[in-house]
Amino acid sequence: GHGVSKDAPRALEYCRKAAIQGYANAQFNMGVLYEKGHCVPQDKAYAVEWYVKAANQGHANAQCNVGLMYEKGHGVSKDYVRALEWYRKAAEQKYAPAQCNMGVMYEYGCGVSKDNVRAVEWYSKAASQGDCNAQYNMGIMYENGDGVPQDEVRAVELYWKAAQQGDADALYNLGFMYENGIGVSKNATCAAECYSRAAEQR
Predict the structure, then answer these.
(1) At the top level of CATH, which class does the domain 94-201 belong to?
(2) Is 136 in contact with 168 (CB distance < 8 Å)?
(3) Could you give the count of Cα atoms lying within 13 Å of 86 in the half-sphere of its Cβ?
(4) Which stretches within the chain are classed as H helix?
(5) With contact defined as beta carbons under 8 Å apart, do 174 and 194 qualify?
(6) What angle do CA 40, 22, 47 make, to 5 degrees?
(7) Which CATH superfamily, name and number, covers 8-90?
(8) How much is the pTM?
(9) Which of 22, 54, 67, 184 has the fewest CB atoms within 10 Å, measured from its CB?
(10) What pLDDT shows up at residue 8?
């Protein structure tokens, strides 16, 4: 709106003051600003410092972001074990993106022994909260029978849920299932529609 750019420095100053006073949401927001370089020079190491302050107060989103920074090696040395620790803290607070990330860590054996059964357990927790990444990942597990008995009908259901949220990969996989009649009746029209929507999302 009008005056947003003019008010940005003032908003930043209020946020910084609140963060220094120990407000977890403000600390988290400072982390986001420095990670993305919004209103401040981008500084991922400083972003991690702010995220950790909020995370240590139990801020689930901040805990998840600290995990992501360790997983990607942004602002800190890449460390899958530390990433997993932070994801777990957030996941235990039922924060769906962290639960999904726990699934990824178990599926690919990052910071922990590879375990598809545990991966599915974590994906399931996140998927039940509507996390489209978890729904998509779980769909793949059911399609391939990894960590669960193979169930192509269930895979289609999960792809469908993720696709309804606009997930391009889920739309593509759903198109493939319709095109080839896997877990669903073969339907060229539905397949074409899914592929088209997937292309629009990419």
Answers:
(1) mainly alpha
(2) no
(3) 26
(4) 4-20, 24-36, 44-55, 60-72, 80-91, 96-108, 116-127, 132-144, 152-164, 168-180, 188-201
(5) yes
(6) 35
(7) Tetratricopeptide repeat domain (1.25.40.10)
(8) 0.92
(9) 22
(10) 81
What pLDDT is stored for residue 175 in this prediction?
Answer: 97
Kindly report the length of the chain.
202
pLDDT, tens digit (0-9, with 9 covering 90-100), for 55-86: 999 999 999 999 999 999 999 999 999 999 99
d(CA 50, CA 56): 10
Is-same-fold flag (8-90; 94-201)?
yes
Domain spans, the chain: 8-90, 94-201
Are the C-beta atoms of 186 and 178 separated by less than 8 Å? Answer: yes
Q: What is the DSSP string of 133-186?
A: HHHHHHHHHHHHTSSS---HHHHHHHHHHHHHTT-HHHHHHHHHHHHHTSSS--
Q: Contact 184/178 with Cβ under 8 angstroms?
A: yes
Amino acid at 149: P
What's 94's DSSP letter?
T
The token duo for 49 is 């410092």
Q: Is 2 exposed, middle or buried (0-12, 13-18, 19+ CB in 10 A)?
A: exposed
